[in-house]
Amino acid sequence: xxxxxxxxxxxxxxxxxxxxxxxxxxxxxxxxxxxxxxxxxxxxxxxxxxxxxxxxxxxxxxxxxxxxxxxxxxxxxxxxxxxxxxxxxxxxxxxxxxxxxxxxxxxxxxxxxxxxxxxxxxxxxxxxxxxxxxxxxxxxxxxxxxxxxxxxxxxxxxxxxxxxxxxxxxxxxxxxxxxxxxxxxxxxxxxxxxxxxxxxxxxxxxxxxxxxxxxxxxxxxxxxxxxxxxxxxxxxxxxxxxxxxxxxxxxxxxxxxxxxxxxxxxxxxxxxxxxxxxxxxxxxxxxxxxxxxxxxxxxxxxxxxxxxxxxxxxxxxxxxxxxxxxxxxxxxxxxxxxxxxxxxxxxxxxxxxxxxxxxxxxxxxxxxxxxxxxxxxxxxxxxxxxxxxxxxxxxxxxxxxxxxxxxxxxxxxxxxxxxxxxxxxxxxxxxxxxxxxxxxxxxxxxxxxxxxxxxxxxxxxxxxxxxxxxxxxxxxxxxxxxxxxxxxxxxxxxxxxxxxxxxxxxxxxxxxxxxxxxxxxxxxxxxxxxxxxxxxxxxxxxxxxxxxxxxxxxxxxxxxxxxxxxxxxxxxxxxxxxxxxxxxxxxxxxxxxxxxxxxxxxxxxxxxxxxxxxxxxxxxxxxxxxxxxxxxxxxxxxxxxxxxxxxxxxxxxxxxxxxxxxxxxxxxxxxxxxxxxxxxxxxxxxxxxxxxxxxxxxxxxxxxxxxxxxxxxxxxxxxxxxxxxxxxxxxxxxxxxxxxxxxxxxxxxxxxxxxxxxxxxxxxxxxxxxxxxxxxxxxxxxxxxxxxxxxxxxxxxxxxxxxxxxxxxxxxxxxxxxxxxxxxxxxxxxxxxxxxxxxxxxxxxxxxxxxxxxxxxxxxxxxxxxxxxxxxxxxxxxxxxxxxxxxxxxxxxxxxxxxxxxxxxxxxxxxxxxxxxxxxxxxxxxxxxxxxxxxxxxxxxxxxxxxxxxxxxxxxxxxxxxxxxxxxxxxxxxxxxxxxxxxxxxxxxxxxxxxxxxxxxxxxxxxxxxxxxxxxxxxxxxxxxxxxxxxxxxxxxxxxxxxxxxxxxxxxxxxxxxxxxxxxxxxxxxxxxxxxxxxxxxxxxxxxxxxxxxxxxxxxxxxxxxxxxxxxxxxxxxxxxxxxxxxxxxxxxxxxxxxxxxxxxxxxxxxxxxxxxxxxxxxxxxxxxxxxxxxxxxxxxxxxxxxxxxxxxxxxxxxxxxxxxxxxxxxxxxxxxxxxxxxxxxxxxxxxxxxxxxxxxxxxxxxxxxxxxxxxxxxxxxxxxxxxxxxxxxxxxxxxxxxxxxxxxxxxxxxxxxxxxxxxxxxxxxxxxxxxxxxxxxxxxxxxxxxxxxxxxxxxxxxxxxxxxxxxxxxxxxxxxx
Amino acid sequence: xxxxxxxxxxxxxxxxxxxxxxxxxxxxxxxxxxxxxxxxxxxxxxxxxxxxxxxxxxxxxxxxxxxxxxxxxxxxxxxxxxxxxxxxxxxxxxxxxxxxx
Lengths: 1362, 101
What we know:
The complex is a heterodimer. Chain A is mainly alpha-helical. Chain A is 64% helix and 6% strand. Chain A is built from 59 helices and 15 strands. In chain A, the strands form three sheets. Chain A has a seven-stranded parallel beta sheet with strand order 4-5-3-6-7-2-8, with helices on both faces. In chain A, strands 9-14-13-10-12-11 form a six-stranded parallel beta sheet, sandwiched between helices. In chain A, strand 13 (587-592), helix 23 (599-606) and strand 14 (615-622) form a beta-alpha-beta unit. Chain A is globular and about 105 Å long. By secondary structure, chain B is an all-alpha fold. Chain B has helices spanning 8-33, 52-79, 87-100. In chain B, helix 2 (52-79) packs across helix 3. The two termini of chain B are 17 Å apart. Mean pLDDT of chain B is 78; it is low at 35-42. Chains A and B meet through helix 22, helix 25 and helix 27 of A and helix 1, helix 2 and helix 3 of B. Chain A: Residues 163-331 form the Helicase ATP-binding domain. Chain A: Keywords: ATP-binding, DNA damage, DNA repair, DNA-binding, Helicase, Hydrolase, Nucleotide-binding, Nucleus. Chain A: Residues 52-83, 907-939, 1155-1179, 1233-1259, 1339-1362 are annotated as: Disordered. Chain A: InterPro entries: DEAD/DEAH_box_helicase_dom (IPR011545), FANCM/Mph1-like_ID (IPR039686), FANCM_DEXDc (IPR044749), Helicase_ATP-bd (IPR014001), Helicase_C-like (IPR001650), P-loop_NTPase (IPR027417).
């Protein structure tokens, strides 16, 4: 009867009934029955019991049981004393369950017929089968049930062994000091139940998720329950998933809340539960989930073994009894630290009470707070609601009790009206004492914070906030806190810590610091950071997030613990969350920052150390705390008395069911259990997922499945991966779309690719982004500059720019710039020039953007002049980078003079010539900018440089003059002024006047022209070359000037005349030529143009074969786009970022423009026809008319427009080309920017002079103007170049011209090298096709340039063209 | 949204395949970096999942994407006089297509 012996030990019989004998009899009967049944029914079980299948049980025992068990019934019902007779319990269980389960009875009924052998002897069998069947077909493994296993992997401890044995056979509450291996007991019990009941489910409940995780691993390490049967279920697992897991798994590590919920929802198969382990059982109070769970299980009822574990059952007799009741405990196994069983295994744990003197300030505050409290306490005492005693000794607890008493039975003599007052006083006092307590245990800082908070509201604030003592205390605290005086406790703690780590190896030693209060956790953490390297501290706090401190999620908590275990941290500062159950062997020091907690918690805290080897507990105490601590310690000692001797005398226990039938007498078997490596949970879960078979597979055909497999499961060899870089040329223009339009990113890509076709590097996106930011920001300028700086850092090119800019103020700026650009060029084989250009342009663009921004703003507010000023200022700033301050903007409001002066100064510094006289800062700036652009160009073409120099030197030459004009426009201008200060002056004057005049309106442009002309005349007189630029600049509105700059203006007529021969050709084809020339100049420029052309052509192809219509359409479109752009600009002004639409529109416009430019003449004609603007001089018409059908002055307007459109691209080509080709950033920027930005950009970039004026004008006007200007520049260039070319072709006589031409050609060659010949051809073809309608000249022109490009000597082609 | 879009189940399956792969990779990486992993950086171990509406939307997006790709590629193919969309046609339109989506 070994099996029964264990429980029987505990029996105390106060009945006369001979239970022992009865049990013995039953057991014997069981065995007999087993034999008998086996003989009876061969089919079923042999000597083994197959309880689920067995039918060899008759019902007689059931009926008999009551008879025999009658006393038992009484016994149980009376439940008088400690009846733990498992056998009898079982009987009870059977009966009660039988009555509930008709099914069971049916089965018994069936059994009746089968086995009716032995009457009484069958009882045992019936009982056994009944038990196992009760909870629903749980069968016991009879073989396994013969033994119970105790592992010997771990050194055996007798107390563990005996407790385990007890726990196996009765519901047990195990009270063991911390660190003595409660988990082992639990694990062994679980393992044995796992073995005995192959179908049974075992649940281990622990109150927090970290503990669950810890226990699942610990249990695995001890007994090695196969992991495929174990699972942890926490709130993290979804209920539906849990339901599945409850079915699949057998050993569950759960949080009680989850268990409660799942039992409630029915997903937990309670009938299968055989064992429930409850960790930290002292929590089983009230309505905690533990209690609910057990109550529910008992109500079902379920027979299962309950094992409760705790180190601290409670400090009062009542609480322990509550636990026992709640958990249906029948045995208490208690070992305290001094128990002889345990003693050998208890590690020395030194507990040091460290009394820390309260700081002086703290003491003072403490007393002050007492003073605050005194009157209230006195009042309450007089009311008789507070016991009279020294108010110093009151505690919040006393106050709470008194208040409760008052609330329940207020003193009868008190009037009702006083109640509120008394309540208030109580509240104040409680708060005060709480604060005092806080102060005494945690120091000043948290106290101060709390006080601050309390003073904000409630009774406390109302009654006390004026109290002088409190104010004084508050002040004192404030001072202390602000001085950062450390609390004495903190200092002591640091001292202890450092001492500790001096002795122990910081790598192996672990320290836990407990604080009751999150605020002080933070303070401790702060203090620890100062200690140095050896302390790697982290906090370990609960989940709830407060106002000041954010909680840690459980995941974080677990990570903290993990790192703490592995050594990532060696100190954790924990709140009460760290008190329970954490099993970290290496912890050898626990510091309790506050001792004023319950003894239970103190024990738990101490239990964190001394687990594997000796540990130390330091308790930091203020004197005021000492008393409370001592009192509580005494309290806790008393309880141990109750629990000694199994608590039999003190507690009422409950009966527990017998889980293993009596016929089995499990005997201990010591086994070496091989434990597999514990695999953390994450992996397992994933495996579970992978098993799922997607539903779609059934729907797919084999072929489809194969396809899927091919793309998603293949090894990779067969993979065909589409290449994104296979057709770069195709990415240079937009492909046709079906229903999804191109995105702005695509636009960027296209632009980029266009630029890239030759070369490029750089971060477009970044620049664009930065620009965007600029836009969004009111003080975009600064940002822009910053951006520049960034860019400079990032890009060498940018840096070069920066250098250039910064150096500009210097007199040698140009040289430096040139050198810098040269260097840049040298570095990059391909299109270095372009790169440099682009960078320059970028910067300019940015400036332009800024300017544009400024302009917009100014437009809304100020007159044109102011705008111009602002713009100028912006230019100035940009150029020089000196003007970072918003003052520049303010400067805009200043007089033009000031601006001019500034400009002058800057320019003087910048320009070598030091013609500072240039009154037009804007022009200067623009010139300078242009010059920058030019510089790289010049560098690119050393020949051209030389030519330029020569030109500068020799202003006389006609040919040179156009060249110069070109250069000027492109940026050579500064040089020219250098050569002739007078000219430059004149220019400046001219520019100033015309610009301003022109800025207001396009119409005014005429008047503008006139003065300009006049000025220009003077200039012309001096230098024709100069005149041409003047005209351009001054007559920015008149692109005609650009075309035939001189022709437009009477004084310039000479120039015109000179040019006219060329210009005639040029008018029609000039743009094209120009493009080519520009291309020659700037390879990059040309390329983008061409690409655009291609693009455009591509677009045109599908749509309309007829050019003119298309072009007109384009022009209109451009208009529309410009309008939209203006809107966009307005929006920008509003502060909004430019919309993608605007960007796209802009791109489109650009593309169109470029295409138009490419087929410039046709477009011009059409533009003339389309546009009714009458600004332009008639003279322009003649030039334009020469090749095309002109509509008169209206045509001029059209030309303007067209020029604007075409020029804008053209301008861009020079500027842009750099932008595009060199800096892909530029295009992106542009796209990003609104159309207004474009216009503004164009202005400053191309014709700085005009640009300012244009800027002054309204947006549309601006754009137009800018376009004009832009046009003018390119046009002029074209003309000039054209002239040069023609001249060169015709007459080689002018050496300069020749040289230049060669240079151009040379450039062209480069350009062409860079460009795709195919593209060029395509262009040409398209042009031809489209322009077939147009004059032959155009065709010739178009063809010529290409031819020239292809063939280095372009002269013949020129001739043809002419 | 058109009727004949992709079968959500199929799309889900594809998604799951990808996520599974991704998770496996992450797993691999994490295993090596577990030690270094800081507090709070542990990722969800669960696979990504997609809710029904998101799935529907994904189907539609994918449909758009595929049709657009085919249409564009078809345009290219046509331009080349071919009746069959080849891989190269796709490659031509791919960069811009990807940027458009």
